[in-house]
Amino acid sequence: MTASEPLRALIVEDSDDDRLLLLRELRRAGFDPIWVQVQTAEDFRAALDADDWDVVFSDYQLPQFTAPAALEILNQSPYDLPFIVVSGTVGEATAVDMMRAGAHDYVMKDNLSRLVEAVRREVREAQSRRDRRAALIELERTKELLHLAIEGSGIGIWDWQVQTGEVWTSDRCAALMGYCPADMGPARIDTWQRFVHPDDWSRKKTALRRHFEGETASYECEFRLRHRQGHWVWVLDRGKVVEWDAAARPLRMSGTYTDITERRLAEAEHRRVADQMLFNSLHDALTQMPNRNFLMQRLDLAIQRCHRHQKTFAVLFLDLDHFKVINDSLGHLAGDEVLVVVAQKLRSLIRTTDLAARLGGDEFVLLLEDIGTLQEPLRIAERLLRDIQEPLAVGGRNVFLNASVGIVMGGCDYQSPSEPLRDADIAMYRAKSQGRGRYVVFNESMHLQALQRLQLEQELRHAIDAGELVLYYQPIFQLNTQEISGFEALVRWQHPDRGLIAPDRFIPIAEETGLIVPLDRWVLSQATRQLALWHQRYPHQGELTVSINFSVKDLLRNDLLSDLTSILAQTELQGHHLNLEITESTLIEDIQSMVAILQQLKPYGFTVTIDDFGTGYSSLSYLHQLPVDALKIDRSFVMTMEANRRNSDIVETIITLSNRLGLAAIAEGVETQTQFEHLHHLGCELAQGYWFAPPLPAAAAETLLASQPMRASTPR
Question: What is the pTM of this model?
């Protein structure tokens, strides 16, 4: 059984019986009609647009519509559909008129025998018309594309009579150079040759000679032609000898010119970009100095030369001292300007065979090769420090720099570039620890100390979890009454093998490695629990506080506030019982961020003290912005007040400043009665130090607290 042939039919008919007869005839012939019946012009228009029809059948006369009207609507539409009149009410003359108007056939309702044949023929011819139109459209499109391709290809055609020198060229050849053919002069080969770039002429002659002598099957050469406007146009010249004489000499040659200027420019740009990418991968973007990658490659080569030829080298690792202060006070643009000037100074100090590199931030490295003695890098380091200490004019003001330099002599004991760089880095940090603004030459004991430091770091990680940390408490006294106002919690490390380790040995390691965060969390938890216990045991000491040192990493934690409020809830302490001590250097690292963080703490009553005040560099200018409660005068000023008038004046200035700003002044490092009396005379409110009491274990601190006279707690 054959499958029915689908036929989408739009039927203009008011008689359902006639429509059924029509559909039955179509089905008998093997069609599967999908149809819509309409009876008005409005419905006919809507149906035309609603689907893709194969044929329209129309009765001649309907109550509200006619076949001529339907045909007129179809003719005005974009659709090419067979229109077959199926009617029984009109004569032959009317049928002829309909055919002339564009109807494709006329079938009587009482004789549908011709219907199927008419449908098949007209549907087939309509499809043929559509196919022809599509083919014509595609042909026109192809012709247009071909024309555009030829026009846009940049191809010119030439034909050369080799032995006479006569040349025929298409208009495009002259147009490549901005000329009309009439402007070119005689149609000879030497007319064209005078446009060839002098640097390309020998290459063109060589390519022609090789083709004429049979070395190449065809001729091909890329060269430049001078454009009418003076610039150069790149062309790809291709050709082949098409006629030879009896002596196998070329008679006639034909070929093409193709404009390849854009391609050559793109290739040049690609090479430029590739070269730039390579340069960028090996150089610092700001200073244009070699970067770490470049340095490591050169160091590797220096080590290889040392092993093969005993050529000694030296590495100088330089770090600018307190460079962050410049960024924070003058801005990063000024900081960048300083780095560029430093880079220029470093370049001026070395030979062309040496290397000056920027590792990043304010760290630079000099690689000096073929060094005879240590005196040569020392001379460079001394001059480097002198030059860097000269004032720089940046942003309308003078900036004073200093640097710490680590020096290592490279020998055959080094195997990889990271090793001398590591040792120079160790020496640089030793220079910083010795007071900055100096150089230190690496020796093996430094490496041993670095390994010991690494071992200490690993043991510290274990100590935090193993309960090896203990808290000591140093009391802070009111100078007027000599009563205890609070305690500063100070962490110690009770090492199982090394005994009690002071904080100055492990706190810097904790800060560098990030261990300071879990360490300070432990201190916060233990100190506040201890304070809460003292409040319970000594109700008259209800205003007793505990001070805890906080690092910048603590302050930048997202969960800092939730940790602090959770501690208050667990211990039933109030916010003012907890004092956060923050070093001045921490605050000035990012003053705006610190202000925002501290302002979040104030609504909860936490107090904030600036620790080591007076040792920083720019916090005085920001002090009015900081929501702090007290200034702690650094022990270096307090302990030398008697011997150093300048330090005594600094202490007096800080106390006066704190009083005017409504802040408390706390002196640390009080070790003599004279210091105590002098501070009391200057109006200092609070103090701590060995003259009062050293840092004490919790039990000893409680004994001291218990000895204090009873006093009423002052509600806040």
Answer: 0.48
